[in-house]
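Example 4.3 (complexes with small molecules)
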Amino acid sequence: MFMELNSSITRYNSLFLNSVLSNLKRAIDLGGFGEEFFTYLSRPMRTISINIPVKINGSIRIYEGYRVQHNNALGPYKGGIRFHPEVTLEDDMALATIMTLKNSLNGLPYGGAKGAIRIDPSKVSKEELEAVSRGYARALVQFIGPDIDIPAPDLNTNPQIMAWMVDEYSKMMGRNVPATFTAKPVQLWGNPVREYSTGYGAALWTRNAARKFLKGIEGATVAVQGFGNVGYWLSHFLTEMGAKVVAIGDIGGAIYNSNGFNPDEVKAVERKTGTVVNYTGPGTRKIGMDELLTLNVDILVPAAVEGVINYSNANAVKAKLIMEAANGPVTSDAEEMLYKRGIYVFPDIGVNAGGVVMSYLEWVENLQWFIWDEEETKKKLDFMITNAFNRVYDRWQKMNGATIRDAAYIDALDRIYQAMKWRGWI
Ligand code: NAD
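Answer. The structure with nicotinamide-adenine-dinucleotide bound is encoded below.
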């Protein structure tokens, strides 16, 4: 069901933002929500631009930052903060728009947001990083809070940065306010599941998809591209569930073993040497990344970067299911080619949402000063992730000829649309 887009879309300099708006338009048209709804969602509700002065060795440096609050029809804004030297406001707008959809699809009481600071964290001292992080929290004090906007980490940000920010915010409020930031250290109101929540969530989507589209996850063969936080934990949990991870790749290359890897052993070698290709266990051979992406496996999981399955290789892909653990790894032209060949693509806004669902659970804990143990938290995560999967699957079955991404987008949009209708916004 690939539709022509109509042309009422503002064109931005950011290819990424244009593509997000095109996808949004396509889903709004396909779901029959109407032009007004697109007009509303095509712009963020609030865009905050800040300049953070930092005094280092007696001289002042200014860091530019943003917070884009896209839509809060469903609840407080929620989304990560990225630190990157090339980040732009328009890319931040695109990311905030995706967060509105992701939060809705996963049944969270949140709207979408995203923040950024133009900084290369590898080029500044720890003191400067701390000063910039605290400066960001100070500059946004009126615009964030447990029932306003709840930031979390993203690219190049981590629990330490969240700890500095929650500390700064709490000092300004004159009391501890843990529910303002999520993915904090375990000792500072965080939850131990956070470390692996995105990989675990992606494994749950894969398990659920294998139950519906294959003979179950036990014995299913899997190729994984990317062996960082998401790819490693996904491989760990899929192996625990009985799948066979037969190929693993990272920036250094890829390895194959028809008997399946023990992901923990591969990770130990990668941690020591910097890449998985130095793993030489019995039955292992090196392969190229092109070969990994086109292996004859049941499930292919791109968990590294965007655009790796594209027009040039989509027709060579042999996997039955593709799970988008990374953001945007399958281009839209590739998806059309895969769709025609009966290969199912499960979209990123569901597959990699384990992190934000975990953030929601941490926020609920913090609001009530609850402490849930690891097993209890994992159960809650499984319940929420499986709920989202089932909603998408049921909707997809009723939408004759649609892709699973179409079903996911429309499910997410429907919830936002209903909330906006009840509020009288549209
Ligand atoms: P990471 O930095 O921990 O790991 C990235 C992995 O990808 C590494 O193994 C790296 O070697 C590999 N890689 C990088 N460039 C590559 C290339 N060109 N070809 C092959 N391999 C390459 O990152 P992560 O946190 O695991 O995130 C992976 C993806 O998942 C990203 O798209 C990210 O935006 C997305 N994501 C992550 C989270 C999270 O909680 N970490 C949440 C949602 C989405």
